């Protein structure tokens, strides 16, 4: 699953990732991947990759770094600043738009694929029960 995290600096993209990881049972420190470009987490045999492409100057850097192999059916890839990778990234299953408000944050989640749509349906059903 590929999830694009969209929002200005300080909007809460890494904080959201931290919450997702903790929700999946990960209890260790969750760092921002700003300088490493990717942080890797293994949870019960599932790999979660947290990317931050903010520092990319050219979308070809994504390909040169060998990140294509990380995006597969056995992983969850959360991507901050996906636009910096141009059209080289796989389509987002989910797109999370984070906005800073005077009173906190707002998030809008949109599906981009059938997998993303099913995920949102499941999440909405679970949330309302």
TrEMBL record:
<dbReference type="InterPro" id="IPR027417">
    <property type="entry name" value="P-loop_NTPase"/>
</dbReference>
<dbReference type="GO" id="GO:0005737">
    <property type="term" value="C:cytoplasm"/>
</dbReference>
<keyword id="KW-0819">tRNA processing</keyword>
<dbReference type="Pfam" id="PF02367">
    <property type="entry name" value="TsaE"/>
</dbReference>
<keyword id="KW-0460">Magnesium</keyword>
<dbReference type="GO" id="GO:0005524">
    <property type="term" value="F:ATP binding"/>
</dbReference>
<keyword id="KW-0963">Cytoplasm</keyword>
<dbReference type="GO" id="GO:0046872">
    <property type="term" value="F:metal ion binding"/>
</dbReference>
<dbReference type="InterPro" id="IPR003442">
    <property type="entry name" value="T6A_TsaE"/>
</dbReference>
<dbReference type="GO" id="GO:0002949">
    <property type="term" value="P:tRNA threonylcarbamoyladenosine modification"/>
</dbReference>
<keyword id="KW-0479">Metal-binding</keyword>
<protein>
    <recommendedName>
        <fullName>tRNA threonylcarbamoyladenosine biosynthesis protein TsaE</fullName>
    </recommendedName>
</protein>
<keyword id="KW-0067">ATP-binding</keyword>
<keyword id="KW-0547">Nucleotide-binding</keyword>
<comment type="similarity">
    <text>Belongs to the TsaE family.</text>
</comment>
């Amino acid at each position: 699953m590929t999830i694009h995290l969209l929002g200005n600096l300080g909007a809460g993209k890494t904080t959201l990732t931290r919450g997702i990881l903790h929700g999946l049972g990960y209890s260790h420190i969750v760092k921002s991947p700003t300088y490493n470009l990717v942080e890797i987490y293994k949870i019960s045999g599932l790999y979660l990759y947290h990317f931050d492409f903010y520092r990319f100057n050219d979308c070809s850097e994504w390909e040169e770094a060998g990140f294509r192999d990380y995006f597969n059916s056995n992983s969850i890839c959360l991507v901050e600043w996906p636009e910096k990778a141009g059209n080289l990234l796989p389509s987002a299953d989910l797109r999370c738009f984070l906005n800073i408000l005077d009173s906190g944050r707002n998030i809008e989640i949109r599906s981009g694929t059938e997998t993303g749509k099913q995920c949102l349906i499941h999440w909405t059903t679970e949330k309302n029960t």
